[in-house]
TrEMBL record:
It holds the Pfam family Glyco_tranf_2_3. The lineage of its organism: Bacteria, Pseudomonadati, Bacteroidota, Flavobacteriia, Flavobacteriales. InterPro entries: Nucleotide-diphossugar_trans (IPR029044). It comes from the Bacteria. PANTHER family: HYALURONAN SYNTHASE, MANNURONAN SYNTHASE. Keywords: Cell membrane, Glycosyltransferase, Membrane, Transferase, Transmembrane, Transmembrane helix. The chain crosses the membrane at residues 65-83, 103-127, 403-426, 432-452, 464-484. This is Glycosyltransferase family 2 protein.
Length: 497
């Protein structure tokens, strides 16, 4: 396989381009082979990073207040856990005095052991994972990039410009933008992009708003590329994103789809995007790296994904006509496409070096609506996955796919028992509940803190703690609600605000 060689000047240019992206904030720049050899230098970098963040807080006192409050709350919980230890022992002793308590404790221990084993196995897979380097221009296949847009306004202009600036052979790149019946000035911004890019861009209008799935369907049928790439219209890609995203199809003939590496674009504007940026890094760079080692990434994100043409057309009629509980599926088109491609026996991979920056909700209302949509899609696709995952859907090992499915399945199955236990715990021992919950957030969030700090920024990593609090107390209801309303349709976050 011919791998593209990059000279020194190209590396320097790439480094300058990297500086344009806020998520590239290396902490250990002085390290050799990724290992910090001088502890004092490393501590100095940490102090400098924290100092820089607190300087930024002067202009954003709300962020400073949130982080300080988070640390005080979690530290208090850790102290409280120490003093309440006798009460926890008495609570557990009372539970073990009943048959139901023993059964519940046994199930809990088994699930914890499964989750711990799964986590440490994922750590092992994460360290084994390597991105596939970009192949040469000659080996890159033809590519059709599809950008569906609805009420995105000026954002679609920036998305299309970033795609047009891609370091991808121009004669192999087809760029399609489809306005899905927007009610704002999205079409005018597409016209402006067309005026700038000329024949490099083709733009189309849907006669009415029919949903993202139908806009993509139109793009798939018009596309001429051997590989389809879908990009959300509020996302920005780096110049090397497309070639990195598509290279796995050249290297691995069994590759049917590739997931890109998603970061938050608007993480400097509000507190929720700051929290989500840390969460996204862990979700993509850790979780999907492990999934990729199984060849079974469960969801290729709408913000950036690539699909083999043959794999798409093998399932396109089923995908566009997909229904759930008698209603047309108008959500979860990315998860559904991934599921159908996995079902065909293809591998679905993750490319850590294929970066995209995307907008996320800045308000609690926008956030929970997005999560409800994701949650409903997750329920639907896990049900669909059950229909094939334990069959001979792939020639090589199916262990990883089944393990990932079981992990997802246990989460869904234990949702309502966990909610009932939480209510019981709150009613009978409110102080113990809140102290135990806060201490659990401290422990679990620290994993994400270390991961983000090692790869990017120490100071920004602390937002994992705030996000842990938000998720535990403000978003815990999403999964049970999504399960109960899985049959409901509606995008929820597409209308003008």
């Amino acid at each position: 396989m011919k791998i593209e060689n990059k000279n020194v000047s190209q590396k320097n240019t790439s480094n300058k381009q990297e500086q344009l992206f806020s998520f590239v904030l290396p902490v250990n720049g002085q390290a050799t082979n990724g290992v910090v050899t001088n502890v004092l230098d490393y501590l100095s970098q940490i102090v400098g990073s924290v100092r820089k963040e607190f300087q930024l807080f002067k202009a954003n006192p709300k962020a400073k207040l949130v982080l300080i409050s988070t640390f005080l709350l979690l530290f208090s919980a850790a102290v409280l856990m120490f003093y309440l230890q006798p009460h926890f022992e008495a609570f557990n002793a009372n539970r073990l005095a009943t048959s139901f308590g023993k059964i519940f404790l046994g199930i809990t221990i088994l699930l914890i052991l499964f989750k711990l084993s799964f986590f440490f196995y994922s750590v092992y897979l994460y360290f084994k994972y390597k991105s596939i380097p970009s192949v040469s221009d000659e080996l890159l296949p033809t590519c059709t990039v599809i950008v569906p847009a609805y009420n995105e306004g000026e954002l679609v202009w920036h998305t299309l410009k970033s795609l047009a600036n891609s370091d991808y052979p121009a004669h192999k790149l087809q760029l399609l933008a489809i306005d899905d019946g927007s009610k704002d000035d999205t079409w005018q911004w597409m016209l402006k992009a067309k005026e700038l890019l000329g024949d490099r861009l083709s733009i189309y209008q849907q006669p009415e708003n029919k949903g993202k799935r139908h806009a993509l369907y139109r793009g798939f049928n018009m596309g001429t590329g051997a590989v389809f790439v879908t990009v959300d219209s509020d996302s920005i890609v780096k110049p090397d994103t497309l070639r990195n995203l598509i290279s796995p199809f050249v290297v691995n003939k069994d590759c049917g789809a590739v997931a890109g590496n998603v970061k938050v674009l608007n993480n400097s504007k509000a507190l929720i995007p700051k929290m989500l940026n840390v969460s996204f890094v862990f979700s993509f760079e850790f979780v999907r790296s492990a999934e990729s080692m199984f060849g079974s990434v469960l969801c290729t994100p709408g913000a950036l994904a690539a699909y083999k043409r043959d794999a798409v057309f093998n399932c396109l009629p089923e995908w566009i006509n997909q229904q759930f509980m008698g209603q047309a599926s108008d959500i979860g088109e990315d998860r559904a496409m991934t599921n159908m491609i996995l079902k065909q026996g293809y591998k679905v991979l993750f490319q850590r070096n294929a970066h995209v920056l995307t907008n996320v909700p800045e308000t609690y209302k926008g956030l929970y609506k997005m999560f409800i949509r994701w949650g409903r899609s997750n329920v639907r696709e896990n049900i669909n996955m059950l229909q094939y995952v334990f069959k001979n859907f792939r020639e090589d090992s199916k262990f990883g796919t089944r393990l990932l499915f079981l992990d997802q399945g246990f989460k869904l199955l234990m949702t309502y028992p966990a909610i009932l236990f939480m209510i019981y715990f709150i009613v009978t021992h409110p102080v113990l509940f809140f102290s135990a919950t806060l201490f659990s957030i401290l422990i679990l969030s620290t994993v994400q803190v270390f991961f983000y700090a090692k790869r990017y920024s120490v100071s920004e990593s602390f937002w994992a703690y705030s996000y842990g609090l938000l998720f535990a107390f403000g978003l815990f209801w999403i999964t049970p609600y999504a399960i109960a309303t899985a049959g409901k349709s509606g995008w929820l976050t597409r209308e003008l605000t």
